[in-house]
Design brief:
441 residues; mainly alpha; Growth Hormone, Chain: A; globular
Amino acid sequence: MPIVQELDAAEAADPTPRQTLLAIAASCLGWSLDLFDLFILLYVAPVLGALFFPSQFPTLSLAAVYASFAVTLLMRPVGSAVFGSYADRHGRKGAMVVAVIGVGISTAAFGLLPTLQQAGPISPILFLALRLVQGVFVGGVVASTHTIGTESVSAKWRGTMSGLIGGGGAAVGALLASLVFLATSSIFPGDSFAVWGWRCMFFSGILSSILGLVVFRSLEESPLWRRAQNKKRQSTDRRTPLAMLFSADHRGVLLTNLLITTGGGAGYYLTSGYLPSFVKVVNKLPGTQTSLILMVASIAAFVASLLIGWLSDQIGRKPTFLLIGVLNLILIPFCYLSMAVSSDVMTIGAYAAALAFLGNAGYAPVLIFLNERFPTDLRATGTGLSWNIGFAIGGILPTFVSLLSPTPSDIPSSLAIFAGSVFVLFLIGAVAVPETRNRMQ
């Protein structure tokens, strides 16, 4: 008996500084590698549209690619349910390793697909099927990656940590994708990019699996999860995390969360998610200039994520949501409409950076807010499903932007209308939800 108590005490001990830093690095890396794999698709969307979903109308081809992106988003809740439940019952580390490696391998597999011209109708079917598989693993990344980071740091830094992982990781992932796009565009210029360039971009996804496996080997479980496991041994409640989440105690929390996650997710995909296509299709800039602008936008997104995450630690999650909601409601439509009529590369870059800043600011505190809404033994499942259902809904909107834009010149006004609408929804959620700062146990 004393031996068991001694082991329990060791499991509940606070992490060492080295363990904390490793948890932070692993969470940021896992998130950035996940977004790196997804941004590859966004950066080559116009090329993929012509190769897999050709149409005499460029915006319809683009809409088809974004629809395939939405297919992945729709599978993310499935991944959150599977990997989140595993992470809550057996630990964050194992779920994170499998999810990140799975995303990298499924991304690399896109580079092996035959085009419509090479294989006929089976080509887009294979493309969509692989997107479904990738979506499951992506959902698992959200459920496991963020929780181990925020559970391993001091309460006063959890909002900053949320921004660093969620937005900062996304910015790093987008920056890495921009660098790969810049390299492949230089190696395969012009028409050759449509032959081998896009394939090499997808092949780079295997690097994320290798890097993730190396970094995660030394990772340890979070102290909050270990303490929760100690308490669970003494509990008579044997319900699964999914059964607990959809019970009367937590079902209302999940539904209210979706107001915030849908608004934040839509804001992100209508800004950072749509920028690669906007710069190419509306501003008609060449690949090199597009890559440089997107790199600047990635840096702006990183700054926004840290700044707004930190702000939520100072003034609270709810006031931060209200402030960012009002700013985005006004400024995102303005930036897109102004960017569309700009011809100067520096001006276009400034608007792109502003849009990336605003879009990432909208969801920087969302992950820690979700973490704080659920107890530890339900956190990975609750956070993952709240995030992925909302972002699945929000991620569909770029498809409708393209579908409702008969020509590229109609895209800016469509983006302005959709962005304004989703941040009205976001503000409704910000008013409805409670303050959660310092309530994660």
